[in-house]
């Protein structure tokens, strides 16, 4: 016991237990490269001239069913392009007096114009002309030729319009 008495017992100790763990797992941050879509821009485009013809019965300015159907499609076109103007020209065959045919051609053109007006197209957008028996498209000496000459031509002259387009 002498040995223990000779020893200095002034020991003070603190113990710390620390566990070293693996570094925390950090998920890789993936960043997607965002490619900005170009903004749509207004472009001026040109619509080429359009042309259509409808025929009439002998000595009549009444629209046939087939002409009315074609005019319905034409009204949709005019609603889509409000800047489009229209030239409506009526014709006849050479049967009968020239003065009568002139008036009949005017009535034919006007019947097309009236149809467009009834469908909501502004009358300021078109001109109406009767040409009588002038400018035949076929020979008036045959029945088939006269049928082709009893017509109204509808022309939309070339025009420009604005359209929103996506740049490439």
TrEMBL record:
CDD domains with a match to the protein in the record: OmpA_C-like
Top-level taxon: Bacteria
Domain OmpA-like, first and last residues per copy: 43-160
Keywords attached to this entry: Cell outer membrane, Membrane
Pfam family membership, one: OmpA
Compartment(s): Cell outer membrane
Main location: membrane
One GO CC term, this protein: cell outer membrane
KW Cell cycle (keyword) present: no
Protein name: OmpA family protein
Organism of this sequence: Vibrio harveyi (Beneckea harveyi)
């Amino acid at each position: 016991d002498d040995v223990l008495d000779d020893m200095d017992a002034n020991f003070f100790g603190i113990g710390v237990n620390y566990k070293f763990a693996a570094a925390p797992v950090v998920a890789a941050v993936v960043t997607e490269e965002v490619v900005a879509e170009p903004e749509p821009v207004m472009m001026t485009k040109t619509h080429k001239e359009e042309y259509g013809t409808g025929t009439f019965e002998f000595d009549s300015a009444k629209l046939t069913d087939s002409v009315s159907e074609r005019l319905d499609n034409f009204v949709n076109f005019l609603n889509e392009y409000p800047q489009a103007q229209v030239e409506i020209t009526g014709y006849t065959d050479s049967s009968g007096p020239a003065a009568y045919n002139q008036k009949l051609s005017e009535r034919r053109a006007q019947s097309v114009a009236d149809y467009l007006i009834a469908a909501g197209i502004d009358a300021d957008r078109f001109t109406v002309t009767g040409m009588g028996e002038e400018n035949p498209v076929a020979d008036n000496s045959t029945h088939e030729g006269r049928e082709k000459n009893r017509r109204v031509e509808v022309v939309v002259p070339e025009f420009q319009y604005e359209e929103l387009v996506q740049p490439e």
